[in-house]
Amino acid sequence: MARKTIVAGNWKMNMTPSQAVELINTLKPLVATDAVDVVFCVPAIDIIPALEAAKGSNIQIGAENMYYEESGAYTGEISPAMLTDVGVKYVIIGHSERREYFAETDETVNKKVLKAFEHGITPIVCCGETLTQREQGVTIDFIRQQIKIAFLNVTEDQAKKAVIAYEPIWAIGTGKVATTEQAQEVCAAIRECIAELYGDDAAEVIRIQYGGSVSASSAAELFSQKDIDGGLVGGAALKPDFGKIVNYKDFKVVEY
Ligand code: PEP
């Protein structure tokens, strides 16, 4: 079974609501394709105007985070029901910036993944090693641990719908993209880990993205790898170049 490529933008803490509308209007014609699932994960306050601006297009709007409780005294948090109420279908869970600056752990990632599935939201589950871990040769062990904990108590049917984003921390926002071999090696290891946890059927359908300084010039080679089903894109998601990343098949020979 062929897996449909999924390219998601992570806007991080960028774009006011009016800028969000402007950016979506600019990108809409550039990302128009049925060949790829296109998701814009935007700051919470941008979600409603972004949904409105994306109406009638192929762009799906996602969130960058979500809390794992239903409601209550959790000042500043966004609940899953708040997201589904307005039509959000995807949420990034466990981005390395949230792990680093907002004390997210594999355990909170797991709680959020379970809660997202409970509400029918597809989690984009992030994992990735530090440069030190890569140099110590423990990348695959570390990623396997992150995945095993993130998927604790997740059923096979749920796992099949998940998206995993492999994002080496040393490649995020640094301009240092992983080599195709490095990215493919880890994505293949993630798929193998899913096969061990859920069997070959789940491993065959789960979508695994690469993220970390993806650009219009690196997307084609990365996304053509056997185990890489698209990308999670930060900086380049805020530029017209995002259109080239989404339409990577047409931009294979672009040289910069
Ligand atoms: C990200 O934020 O998930 C990311 C991959 O960022 P960048 O593309 O800017 O490295």
Structural commentary:
The chain is globular, with a radius of gyration of 17 Å. The chain has one domain (2-255): TIM Barrel (Alpha-Beta Barrel). Helices cover 41% and strands 16% of the residues. The termini are far apart. The mean pLDDT is 96. The chain has helices spanning 17-27, 47-54, 80-86, 96-101, 106-118, 131-136, 139-150, 156-161, 180-198, 200-205, 219-223, 241-246, and strands at residues 5-10, 36-42, 59-63, 90-93, 122-127, 163-166, 207-211, 230-233. The structure holds phosphoenolpyruvate. The site of phosphoenolpyruvate has 14 residues, from β8.
Roughly what percent helix? 40-55%
CATH topology description = TIM Barrel
Topology pattern, helix = H, strand = E: EHEHEHEHHEHHHEHHEHEH
Helix/strand structural class: alpha/beta
The total count of strands amounts to 8
Mean pLDDT: 96
Ligands in the structure? phosphoenolpyruvate
CATH class identity: Alpha Beta
What proportion of the residues form beta strands (DSSP E)? 15-25%
> Uncertain segments of ≥5 residues (pLDDT<50)?
none
Beginning-to-end CA distance, first to last residue: 34 Å
Q: What is the overall silhouette?
A: globular
Name given to the CATH homologous superfamily: Aldolase class I
Domain unit count: 1
Give the second-level CATH assignment, the architecture. Alpha-Beta Barrel
Major beta-sheet overview: 8 strands, parallel, barrel
Adjacency order of strands in the biggest sheet:
1-2-3-4-5-6-7-8
Count of runs of 4 or more consecutive helical residues: 12
